[in-house]
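Lab manual, section 2.4: Encoding a predicted structure.

Procedure: take the sequence of the chain (508 residues), apply the prediction step described in section 2.3, and record the output as structure tokens. A sample record is shown.
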Amino acid sequence: MEKTRETWASRGTFILAAIGSAVGLGNAWRFPGLAAKHGGGTFLLVYLVALFLIGIPLLMMEISIARKFHRGAGACMRGINRKMEFVGWAATANAFVIVTYYAVVFAWVLLMVFGALKFAGMTGDGEAASQVFANLTQTTWDVTGYTIPIPVLISLLVAWAAIYMCIRNGAKSVGKVVKYTVFLPVILLLIMAIKGCTMPGAMEGLKRFFVPQLSAFADPSLLVDAFGQVFYSLSIMMAIMFAYGSYLSEDANIAEDAIIIAVSDAAVSILSGIVMFSTMGGVGMLNDMSASGIATAFIIYPQTIVNLTSVGWINALFGVIFYLMLVTLAIDSAFSIVEGVSASVADKFKIDRKKTTQVICVIAGVISLLYATRAGLAWLDIVDNWTNQINLIVIGVLECIAVGWCFDTDKVLAEVNRNTTKFQMKRGWFRVSIRYIAPVVLTVLFVWNIYSLFALKGGHYGYALWAELIAGWFVSILVFVSGFFVRLAINHKKKKGFQEEELVWDEK
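Recorded output:
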């Protein structure tokens, strides 16, 4: 076991970093949209049940395994069971795919901070406001058009520079950044919530958000979306929590820390819901909310912003605040994904972590140019659907099988509770969740998504079939065979004297 591995500067630093990773754009735009789709309070209720039922146990599982081995996802899964190492690499590869387009979303948000200034001259003109994003990115809304608008390219370069600067020194540099980037979006959300709640019609929006509608329980996709939101939001199954957990000291209180992280993530989602529902209610657009994050942030909400007041510069100011909030949410999630990938690769191949991070940023940055093109939004939509609706869910099922059925959950639970006195994770809750509830729920989620794709959409996601085959199914295949390529590389290095590290779960 490596003795000189860096650790977090303090318990608070780890918690802030993990919260920063978990709290991302999905909290601000996907959560409110899904709540609007599923009867507001109904979705909120099911989401909170899902959070405690599977979210918290899975979060504890990943962090505790990483703290035990002090390694990234690939090595950790090999330590659990050698045959399951490929699961860790699938999570790592999928995370790499995600960051290639997440960085572009980050760039778009950066661009809209300045684009929001245009709202000053669009008071009451929702149609003009809804076109600002499309005009800046020059999107074709399809897989055609491969020039890159200069403003988008500049924003993307700034985004990648910011991501690299935040993680260039691993836990040390991350710790310095999250002291600011975690609290700033909360402050900005509070400002927006105060504005939203003081608008006429806001109470109608809040009522819809918090009061359950019984009719919403009849929609089977409610459970799928609520459990899925918990799964996506906590940054689990993406190699991130393995990386962050690997930097924990031996005296870390994982049981309590995971609760704090999960509850904080949910709190920001609820605050985002308050902002969105009160504001949309205040301008009479409650029925216009979309479950699509991109549509909500770049098309629908701009229409809302220009109708906030009759004073153009005030509307523009709130537009800038909104997109600054998204910037601070995006950057933590973006650099945490890179850190998860970097930790896996550097640990497995025993190479310098800083150089690994540099190479990953360069390669991912080059690939991200595709999404920066005028066709980029369509390609992003395809890749995002497969990485999240297919890959991430299958990885979750496989991780649960690896830990719950190919290993001993009691050993993992002992690691979770090793340093806790006030709160201990209950054996029944932890064991049943990982062995039964989580894999069953995730399998149902996967089956539903496949059924929706083939039975309801005719096997077509909405773009050219060749594009879906390349960016969807082919990328998914690469994700799940990534472990095979890693094994080939390791076997090649062994011929040159490389010694592969073997991890054993020793009892303490």
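Check your result against the sample. The domain at 13-494 is CATH 1.20.1740 (Amino acid/polyamine transporter I).
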